[in-house]
Design brief:
single chain, 2% strand, 64% helix, mainly alpha
């Protein structure tokens, strides 16, 4: 919205700053951060009053989690609110990729909100049916995948770009749509599975979101793509503003989610943020790189899949408990130890993911 202030510029004054994506990204970060600090405590107070007993604690979960009973959920509303407000204020609203990412984020937030509401109302860890959640998620992802395919350059449409291998494209044809749907839905559910300890999911999301934002900025500039020898996707540079808002909103939320958490993000936040990461990856043609940058989420999801399949086949467990962060809890690791070590792993993976821009 504020981009239109450039119409008041003569090319050498303050209003000219609004032409620069980096300046507006900084503004989005500050706006989202201030939003989180201003509305965090009031939102938590409202959630406490309306939810009563707060988020139900799983009876089959780690014993140490029972002390968290009464903590309100749906804190993702704070992140989503900051993200939406900042993006609408600072991004160019004529950019199709901005609307595509916002569509995915808000739609998955709505699914998560319905799930959180059902859990709180019934005081049960069983919310909206998993089948319903998946069907809605795939529908949203299908719309977003088609959306991205329409606005990708002709030479990239329905193609899969491979990191490291220069100018290598795999033509997926009509299979690109289901592939992109899997990326978005898989990302949303992987982040959802990771959100099991105070502060565990939000920092890796911010790290991955910031990394993908840098990638989006790079592939959206023809001079950068020529230097780095990566595929040019016009318009994706604006996604950096969304990513900056995600980091600002995430930090505002982490202020209250740091152990011991005053609020949980719930599915409202985890599904929305995971979907957003998948949508950015699809928009920028960096779906494979998302698997590296978001490698922690991949491992968390795989640990659940492996546990379920192995148990069905043998009646035994590979991990003491899945997802894998619970395995380390059962081994006696302190919660802050798990959280910080997983943050470090996320940062390392983000650096590796960024390196794929230059390694060709």
């Amino acid at each position: 919205m504020l981009y239109w202030l450039t119409e008041l510029s003569d090319g050498g004054d303050f209003f000219n700053l609004f032409r620069y994506i980096t300046f507006r990204a900084g503004g989005a970060f500050i706006t989202a951060l201030v939003f989180g600090f201003l509305f965090g405590l009031p939102l938590i107070n409202v959630l406490r009053r309306t939810q009563g007993k707060g988020q139900p604690i799983r009876t089959d979960g780690p014993e140490g989690h029972f002390v968290k009973a009464g903590t309100p959920t749906m804190g993702g509303l704070l992140i989503v609110g900051a993200l939406l407000t900042s993006t609408l204020l600072w991004a160019r609203l004529d950019n199709p990729f901005i609307w595509m990412v916002l569509f995915v984020t808000m739609s998955f937030a709505a699914i998560g909100f319905a799930d959180d509401y059902a859990k709180v109302r019934k005081q049960s860890s069983a919310g909206v049916s998993g089948r319903v959640r998946l069907l809605l998620g795939f529908f949203i992802a299908g719309v977003a995948a088609y959306w991205a395919a329409v606005y990708h350059p002709a030479e990239l449409t329905n193609n899969l770009a491979l990191p490291v291998f220069k100018n290598t494209l795999i033509h997926l044809g009509w299979m690109f749509i289901p592939f992109a749907m899997f990326v978005i839905v898989g990302s949303a559910n992987a982040v959802n599975l990771t959100d099991g300890l105070d502060g565990l999911a939000i920092m890796p999301v911010m790290i991955a979101g910031g990394t993908l934002g840098v990638i989006a900025y790079a592939v959206g500039r023809v001079d950068f793509t020529e230097y780095l020898d990566v595929h040019y996707v016009p318009g994706t540079g604006e996604i950096l503003i969304f990513s900056a808002a995600l980091i600002g909103g995430g930090l505002g939320f982490l202020w209250y989610n740091a152990p011991p958490a005053a609020v949980f993000m719930g599915d409202t936040g985890s599904l929305a943020l995971g979907g957003a990461l998948g949508a950015i990856a699809v928009a920028t043609k960096h779906e494979i790189v998302l698997g590296i940058v978001g490698g922690l989420f991949v491992v968390e999801a795989l640990s659940v899949i492996i546990q379920v399949l192995y148990f069905k086949r043998t009646g035994k467990r590979v991990f003491l408990m899945a997802p894998i962060h619970h395995h380390y809890e059962k081994k006696g690791w302190a919660e802050p130890t798990i959280v910080i070590r997983f943050w470090i792993i996320s940062l390392i993976l983000a650096i590796i993911g960024l390196a794929t821009l230059k390694v060709r």
